[in-house]
Amino acid sequence: MPPHDSAAESGVLGAMLCDGAAARVAVEMLRAHDLYVPRHRALFGVMAGMLAEGQALDEITVTGAAEQAKLLEACGGRDEVGRHILRASPASVETYCEQVRRLSQRRALHEAGLRLQDGVRRNDDPADLAGRVLADLSAVQAGTDEALPEPMSVEDLLDFVPDEDGDSLIGQRWLCKGGSCLWVGSSGIGKSTLAIQAALRWAFGL
After folding, report:
1. Is 168:162 a contact under the CB 8 Å cutoff?
2. How far is residue 15's CA from residue 86's CA, in Å, rounded to a whole number?
3. For 36-41, which contacts have Cβ atoms below 8 Å and span 24 or more sequence positions?
4. CA neighbours closer than 13 Å in the CB half-sphere of residue 28
5. What is the pLDDT of residue 123?
6. Res 2: pLDDT
7. Alpha helical stretches, state H, the chain
8. Which bin fits 117, alpha (ψ -120 to 50), beta or left (φ > 0)?
9. DSSP assignment, residue 162?
10. Closest C-alpha among 102, 118, 95 to residue 22
11. What is the pTM assigned to this prediction?
12. Which of 66, 85, 154, 164 has the smallest count of CB within 10 Å of its CB?
């Protein structure tokens, strides 16, 4: 099952129902697609729409708006909406939102990885494939305040000295055990040779 936190999503929704300030924080930090559970996404969308129109949020107004929009069943029904309030802690809304957003980004990266694997299996053009990967990463990065790491150039890779890197760039962050990376280049440029040379250097601790 894709990574998600149903309790954190419920916490966001409950906080929105209980406190207007918490609701405004939630719609600034999240979008409906960040929530994984379908009924949570539907309810968040209803409440975000109400806020955009300047309407107050509480159990009665939200269930009424959802019913009018024929979305109450999609939101889980009246009892489900009420249960979110029982789990609410408006003071913790930022923590809930950060957890939901972080897991949403992990799901997006997982989906990007699957698309990359499909492209490799189809033998897509490497340049086109790399462009799609960068577009996917940019879309994920747009949902966070953290910048993506700078790509490592071939020159830096060949000049890498393990003993001078306090972060163990190759061993822990750049290419982790059980992980993978993508080297992109034109046909015949020497990607396979570079990969073999790099593997030998790392294997012998050079």
Report:
1. yes
2. 10
3. 36/2, 36/4, 36/6, 36/9, 36/103, 36/104, 36/107, 37/4, 37/6, 37/9, 38/74, 39/74, 39/75, 39/76, 39/80, 40/6, 40/9, 40/10, 40/13
4. 9
5. 84
6. 81
7. 6-18, 20-29, 38-52, 59-68, 78-86, 93-121, 126-141, 154-158, 191-203
8. alpha
9. G
10. 95
11. 0.64
12. 164
Question: What does the block give as tokens for 84?
Answer: 């979110």
Instruction: Give the whole-angstrom CA distance, residue 119 versus residue 130.
Output: 10
CB atoms < 10 A from the CB of 172, how many? 11
Q: Any residues with CB less than 8 A from the CB of 176 and at least 6 apart, and which? A: none
Looking at residue 154, its amino acid is: V
- Length, in residues, of the chain: 206
pLDDT in 10s for each residue of the chain, 206 residues: 788 999 999 999 999 999 999 999 999 999 999 999 999 999 999 999 999 999 999 999 999 999 999 999 999 999 999 999 887 889 999 999 999 999 998 888 888 888 888 888 888 888 787 787 777 777 776 665 444 445 556 566 566 665 665 545 454 445 554 556 666 666 677 777 877 777 776 666 65
Write down the pLDDT at residue 180. 61
- Under 8 Å between Cβ of 21 and 91: no
